[in-house]
Design goal:
The complex is a heterodimer of chains A (242) and B (123). Chain A contains 13 helices and no strands. Chain A is an all-alpha fold and 242 residues long. In chain A, helix 2 crosses helix 4 (67-78) and helix 11 (159-183) packs across helix 12 (189-211). Chain A starts with a helix and ends with a helix. With 123 residues, chain B is an all-alpha fold. Chain B folds into two domains: 1-64, no CATH class; 81-111. The longest helix of chain B has 26 residues, at 85-110. At the A-B interface, helix 2, helix 3, helix 4, helix 5 and helix 6 of A face helix 1, helix 2, helix 3, helix 4 and helix 5 of B. Chain B: This is CidA/LrgA family protein. Chain B: It is found in: Cell membrane.
């Protein structure tokens, strides 16, 4: 009996030796998050992803496994992130005529928007006395995570803090775009999509696809252009001041 | 089969993206470059490959799921920055709301308004 219990207690560790358990946990938490999100009448401040991430964190904390065990398995699932990003070419191509018509105004407004997205947070944090390491982790907060991680590393920021900043920014941007576009009576899906992509990176883009395919395509455009612009300009500006 | 063929297309363009990143030392992820290359390729051919269209729909719907695992880690390192959290949270929330407001105002000012709310591109 004792031996059996011992074997049972080793089960979680053995499960997480292969990626299967981590993938199953992620999928399970995802569907749980969506269901709870619907039961809570779709609150904009709490996307299903946040619920799911909290649930996964709770399960990891309760089981005798570490975050590293989970990350190792979930990495297999995240392999799909690359092809999924490439797949965004389909909505982007579908909206190409619309984007071509708006080429000039987008090129005029986007660099300024992307700069402001980084500046506001860095200025507020600096004014409140945050050290350089924290500022470096906050500066790329509106950029899609693969680019942002590289940037934070280059500026000397913390990877973990940046992931937290990305989550907070994404959730706030989704909430902010929905709230402020209603307040400003903006209904143009192109504009809402761009605002979601520029400020809310991939989280905002996912939300934009839920609104419409036009909003989604413009969000992917805003996300990629913000990423490209910030990746080139931020390190230059940063080393100018630091 | 169509889905698998489409998936192969995506993988090939991901690899092409990676090659471009490595060759030109671009500070961008391979996926984003692959996406731009595939868009340019569709534009060059004057149409989309139906296999890629098939596989892209479920993959884009999965994006939220694919971002999630990266988010989990924060809950395990939050303690490191405990003495800074008021500045961090204020900067993130106020900064993001401000930047959303300014980009919405900027775009509304400079983007020509669309003729109809339901654009023909919305199928």
């Amino acid at each position: 009996m004792n031996e059996w219990l011992e074997r049972l207690s080793q089960l979680p560790q053995q499960w997480f030796d292969s990626p299967v358990a981590a993938i199953a946990l992620t999928l399970g938490a995802y569907f749980f998050g969506i269901r709870l999100f619907k039961l809570m009448h779709r609150p904009t401040w709490c996307p299903p992803m946040l619920i799911a991430a909290l649930l996964i964190a709770a399960v990891i904390a309760l089981l005798p496994i570490g975050i590293d065990d989970y990350n190792r398995g979930a990495g297999w699932l995240m392999l799909l992130l690359g092809p999924a990003t490439v797949a965004l070419a389909v909505p982007l191509y579908q909206q190409l005529p619309q984007i071509r018509a708006l080429w000039k105004p987008i090129m005029l407004t986007l660099p300024l928007s992307a700069t402001l997205a980084a500046c506001y947070a860095v200025i507020i944090a600096a004014a409140m006395g945050a050290p350089a390491e924290v500022l470096a982790s906050l500066a790329p907060k509106s950029v899609t995570s693969p680019i942002a991680l590289g940037l934070a590393e280059e500026l000397g920021g913390s990877r973990a803090l940046l992931m937290g900043a990305l989550l907070t920014t994404g959730v706030t941007a989704i909430f902010g775009v929905e709230w402020l576009s209603r307040a400003l009576r903006i209904r143009d899906p192109r504009l809402i999509g761009l605002a979601l992509g520029i400020n809310g990176h991939a989280l905002g883009t996912v939300r934009a696809f839920e609104i419409s395919s036009v909003a989604g395509a413009f969000a992917s455009l805003g996300m990629s252009l913000t990423g490209a612009f910030t990746a080139i300009v931020l390190p230059l500006v940063w080393h100018l001041f630091a | 089969m169509s889905v698998l063929r489409g998936f192969l297309w995506l993988l090939v363009f991901l690899l092409l993206g990676q090659a471009t990143v490595e060759l030109f030392h671009l500070p961008m992820p391979s996926g984003v470059i692959g996406m731009l290359l595939l868009t340019i390729f569709f534009g060059y051919r004057g149409g989309m490959n139906p296999d890629v269209v098939h596989v892209s729909q479920p993959l884009i719907a999965m994006l939220a799921l694919l971002i999630m695992p990266g988010v989990v880690e924060i809950f395990f390192v939050a303690g490191q920055f405990a003495d800074q959290w008021i500045a961090i949270v204020t900067a993130l929330i106020a900064g993001t709301l401000l930047s959303v407001l300014s980009s919405l105002l900027l775009m509304r000012r400079y983007l020509p308004t669309s003729d109809t709310p339901g654009n023909p591109g919305d199928e």
